[in-house]
Design a protein that fits this description.
globular, Serine Threonine Protein Phosphatase 5, Tetratricopeptide repeat, 433 residues, 18 helices, five-stranded parallel beta sheet, DNA Cyclobutane Dipyrimidine Photolyase, subunit A, domain 3, binds flavin-adenine dinucleotide, 5 strands, alpha/beta, Rossmann fold
């Protein structure tokens, strides 16, 4: 067998416009494509996890695209370093190619793989794929990172005009993939059970992008793009989506995609913010962290119908509209004085579109402790939010049909008291005597 390039799919689960895959295929005679179900990640997941089903479906779609060329993605379960060592023993691999992954754990993992390959004299190539601009590509003129969104987005847009990235025809090179039987895995073999959760479609219409500014704040309309999970696992190309968004006259949707990259570069520059507040003074807050109250929040039994509707949507579908994510987050941190990290962890377990940088960044925004965060005294009123965003109670009626019945709980905390308690607690942490 001639020398092989190993292509390692991670969060780039598509054959079209996949930068690393394209370079792997273009510069090799034969490519061995693989995916590893990393036990360091999947062993911590609940038994019913829609994300595992999503990944398996995406790998199945890649297999379908490669069927004509009689190849498949090899699927492995285990520790990446051990799996790659085993593959190096079994195949004549002289090059390993993958796409960048910026999360702190992924960086550590990749550094270990790179060292292993270097020891064996094997090249490790790593490409930018999941963002338009990564790491320190968009910084202030002095090279320091932006920690405020608006100037970041202006610089991002200016750079985009000058450096619009090309889409690459990786799907035209699939004949270079190795034509051999590679191991396949099923949900059962991975130790998971069906979740019953349906993933959303993988495209957005121009009409939806054009109307986004007017529709995005009203959860009952359900008119956002639902592309979060596809961006998370790379089942769509960010270059294609940004090209579509940038061609529309209304820039609001594109700005959301820039928020995603803003938080990605924040996590990359400040990896400690995965578990610590960006503004350290906020880690002095004396959270109440009442477990029973946390449980009521998780279950959607707070007695505030809009908060409960959001939590029930999350629990039943793995999705929650952004308006509600902000409201339930504010309610947890400010009304209940529960540490934002508890909410972040709950979302990380439940969200199909869970993305560490966006989840941590937005939770810190909600709690007031992050970059460019909501001021701590901005406390959403869970009752007036209904008048603003669900006046006809359509969203509430869908998720909490019994909200006007006797069996529906009374509000677990009184708004005015909770607001004052929050302000006092935050103030004493931020201005210690
Ligand atoms: C507390 C909290 C936690 C969140 N956790 C996550 C998370 O784990 N993963 C995640 O992708 N988003 C997260 N978001 C951001 C936002 O709520 C979701 O991206 C959005 O609701 C997903 O739905 P959509 O795909 O229909 O988005 P659309 O409204 O159609 O937006 C398109 C895309 O833009 C990006 N985007 C939109 N808003 C934001 C934002 N505020 N921050 C970063 N990217 C954004 C996402 O990639 C999204 O898919 C969180 C927001 C809050 C307030």
């Amino acid at each position: 067998m001639s020398r092989l390039t190993l292509f390692w799919f991670r969060r780039d689960l598509r054959v079209q416009d996949n930068v690393g895959f394209y370079h792997a295929l273009k510069n090799a005679e034969q490519v061995l494509p693989i995916f590893i179900f990393d036990t360091a990640i999947i062993d911590k997941l609940p038994q019913q996890d829609a994300r595992i089903e999503f990944i398996l479906k995406a790998l199945g779609d890649i297999n379908d695209a490669m069927k004509r060329n009689r190849c498949t993605v090899g699927m492995y379960r285990g520790e990446p370093k051990a799996i790659i060592t085993q593959l190096l023993d079994n195949y004549p691999i002289d090059r390993v190619v993958t796409n960048h992954d910026y999360e702190p754990y992924a960086q550590e993992r990749d550094a270990a793989i790179e060292a292993l390959l270097a020891e064996k004299g094997i090249a490790f190539e790593n490409y930018k794929d999941q963002v338009i601009f990564e790491k320190a590509e968009v910084t202030k003129d002095d090279g320091s990172p932006y920690v405020v969104y608006t100037p970041y987005s202006k610089k991002w847009l200016a750079r985009f005009q000058d450096h619009t990235p090309q889409q690459l025809p990786s799907e035209e090179l699939l004949h270079k993939c190795i034509q051999t039987e590679l191991p396949q895995l099923s949900l059962k073999a991975l130790g998971f059970q069906p979740s019953g959760i349906q993933a959303p479609g993988d495209s957005v219409s121009n009409a939806r992008i054009d109307a986004y500014e007017e529709t995005r704040n009203f959860p009952a309309l359900d008119e956002t793009s639902r592309l979060g999970v596809h961006l998370r696992f790379g089942t769509i190309s960010i270059r294609k989506l940004v090209e579509q968004a940038a061609a529309r006259s209304n820039p609001t949707y594109l700005k959301e995609l820039i928020w995603r990259e803003f938080f990605m570069q924040i996590l990359w520059h400040f990896p400690h913010t995965a578990s610590k507040s960006f503004k350290p003074a906020y880690d002095r807050i004396l959270w109440r962290n009442n477990e029973e109250e946390f449980q009521r929040w998780c279950e959607g039994n707070t007695g505030y119908p809009l908060v409960d509707a959001g939590m029930r949507e999350l629990n039943q579908t793995g999705y929650m509209h952004n308006r509600l994510r902000m409201l339930v987050g504010s309610f947890l941190c400010k009304h209940l004085l529960i540490d934002w990290r508890w909410g972040e962890a709950y979302f990380a377990e439940k969200l199909l579109d869970y993305e560490m940088s966006s989840n941590v960044g937005n939770w810190q925004w909600v709690a007031g402790c992050g970059v460019d965060a909501a001021p701590y005294f901005r406390i959403f009123n869970p009752t007036s939010q209904v008048t603003k965003f669900d006046k006809e109670l359509k969203y509430i009626n869908k998720w909490v049909p019994n909200h006007q019945e006797l069996d529906y709980p009374q509000p677990m905390v009184e708004h005015k008291m909770a607001r004052e308690r929050c302000l006092t607690t935050y103030k004493s942490a931020l201005n210690p005597q």
